[in-house]
Design a protein that fits this description.
This protein has about 525 residues and is of the alpha/beta class. About 60% of the residues lie in helices and about 5% in strands. It has 21 helices and 10 strands. The chain has a 4-stranded mixed beta sheet, with helices on one face.
Length: about 525
């Protein structure tokens, strides 16, 4: 007999405690990994955005704790996004002050909350699987290329600049070439040791309870200390750089408040709308991508995610942080580190807060090269060779949009690249749809051909030309049956072609019979017509 406690049995409580403890064993180490990945990204994105470094860290904290708590996604991690750096930089310049820009973030967050409440998050269901896979692979390739300079000790580039054309007048390839001419061999040694640990440490099952990224950071910091004063010594800019706070008043002085006097400024509202749209699209893309690599294959509630992101941006804007989105780099690191629930995202936010307050000087001893090694392994997992083989075997209609998306994202940025990939993906969807408006069978009835054309479930105006050509080419003297029994929708243009053909076919000795074809069809809901991505 089970004892009830407030309507819940003691057995249920024990089961919940068991699963909470079991998940925390994976979530806490994963949160640590995400923290190590997020830390330099938060600082670098703030630097690339022309904003105070503190604003980047603050956005990471809020993304972890606030968004992580409200979000329904178990593996997605929010924080300042590289895709918004150009918007942030230009907006601060146009508005004249960071405080005016903070007002834009607050308004943008409010817009996102409204988008979530009106269920605009369903747009995420309309991205083809091949495009999402291509986006993930492209991000993996970008990670590898962008982290290579840090891996060899060339740290001129902005950490947060993930676009092809960089804000320092270089591009991804020229940055790599520059790095090859200015190698720091101390950084290279740290990178190679770190990569070896990331690859081989998890293979020792008894030792794997210590996360490989944690060991990488400890050994990387130790090696950097040993190299000090030698020819392998690292420069100051080759370490993590967190702003140091020496007193309570100095700490609270880092916070900024939005300038609400700008509510009547048209540019503020235009900027806010731009941030809301771009941040929402990046969030939904990242959410879709994370769900695809979730080993448990959970589906995240997109509308709730928009509300969570909106709440995070409102808080961030009020306190002086950068705008945020769900970020695929941190989220991928979270998945690859073995996270099971959103506690890992919350924990990474808590770690950012604690470290900002308690041990910034210690964190500033971590070399960027060992963090680069962690991200290099994440990049390889996203763009592994097996993924390309898998997409090739699925056919050209999947492989070509996949490859085009990769190329477009690598040579432009996330949103433009995905937009190009979507156009190619939609082309193949329409091409397939145009070729499959019906099933065609030919039989014999004595001396006459009996042709049955069974129309597809959805016959749109895109099928008009294919059906017109087929009907025109039917042999003289045939009996033709056009069967619409499976069709939920037939476009009026197609109905007109079919009816005109039936009236005029007698001139060619053709007898046409229409079966289960209505005079008109109501348009079905968009969700029933849209292409549904394949779930692997």
């Amino acid at each position: 007999m089970q004892i009830k406690q407030g309507g819940v049995s003691a057995g249920d409580l024990n089961l919940k405690k068991y699963f909470l403890a079991k998940n925390l064993k994976k979530d806490l180490p994963a949160g640590l990994v995400v923290f190590l990945v997020a830390l330099p990204l938060c600082l670098g994105i703030a630097l690339a955005s022309g904003a105070p470094l503190f604003s980047g860290i603050l956005a990471g904290i809020i993304g972890g704790i606030v968004v992580g708590t409200i979000s329904g996604s178990q593996l997605s991690v929010a924080g300042p996004a590289a895709g918004l750096t150009v918007i942030v930089l230009n907006s601060i310049a146009k508005l004249g002050s960071f405080e005016s820009f903070l007002l834009c973030i607050v308004i943008a967050g409010g817009i996102q909350i409204i988008l979530g409440l009106v269920k605009a998050g369903t747009i995420a269901n309309y991205f083809p699987s091949s495009v999402i896979e291509g986006m993930l692979a492209a991000i993996g390739i970008i990670l590898i290329m962008k982290q290579f300079p840090h891996a060899v000790g060339y740290d001129k580039d902005y950490e947060g600049d993930e676009g092809f054309s960089q804000m320092d007048t270089e591009n991804t390839f020229s940055g790599i070439l520059s790095a090859l001419h200015k190698i720091n061999y101390g950084a290279v040694i740290i990178t190679l040791v770190s990569l070896a640990i990331m690859i081989y440490w998890p293979k020792f099952k008894k030792l794997a309870m210590i996360p490989a990224p944690l060991l990488v950071v400890v050994l990387g910091t130790l090696l950097a200390w040993l190299f000090a004063g030698t020819g392998l010594a690292l420069l100051d800019k080759q370490f993590v750089q967190i702003p140091l706070v020496h007193s309570t008043p100095e700490f609270f002085g880092l916070f900024k408040s939005p300038d609400f006097s700008g509510l009547g400024n048209k540019q503020v509202w235009i900027t806010a709308a731009t941030i809301a749209i771009v941040a929402s699209l990046e969030t939904l893309l990242s959410l879709e991508a994370v769900d695809k690599i979730d080993p448990i294959k959970r589906i995240s509630p997109t509308n709730r995610e928009l509300v969570a992101q909106g709440a995070g941006n409102v808080v961030s804007g009020l306190l002086g942080g950068l705008p945020m989105t769900a970020v695929i780099v941190r989220s991928s690191a979270n998945v690859n580190a073995g996270a099971r629930t959103k506690m890992s995202a919350v924990f990474h936010g808590i770690l950012l807060l604690v470290c900002l307050l308690a041990i910034p000087s210690i964190l500033n001893k971590i070399p960027l090269s060992c963090l680069a090694a962690i991200l290099l392994t994440v990049g390889y997992k996203l763009a592994r060779v097996g993924l390309f083989q898998h997409m090739w075997h699925k056919g050209l209609d999947q492989f070509i949009p996949f490859v085009i998306t990769i190329i477009a994202v690598v040579f432009t940025d996330l949103l433009i690249g995905v937009g190009i990939g979507m156009l190619v993906g939609v082309f193949y969807i329409l091409r397939t749809n145009m070729r499959n408006p019906y099933f065609y069978t030919i039989g014999r009835n004595g001396d006459k051909n009996t042709i049955r054309i069974k129309l597809a479930e959805e016959v749109s105006f895109l099928n008009k030309a294919a059906i017109q050509i087929t009907l025109t080419g039917l042999p003289t003297g045939s009996d033709v049956v056009i069967d619409g029994s499976n069709s939920r929708y037939i476009d009026p243009d197609v109905l007109e072609i079919i009816n005109n053909y039936r009236h005029n076919a007698y001139t060619k000795g053709i007898i046409v019979q229409l079966q289960d074809i209505k005079e008109r069809y109501d348009i079905p809901p968009l969700k029933d017509l849209v292409y549904k991505p394949e779930v692997n």
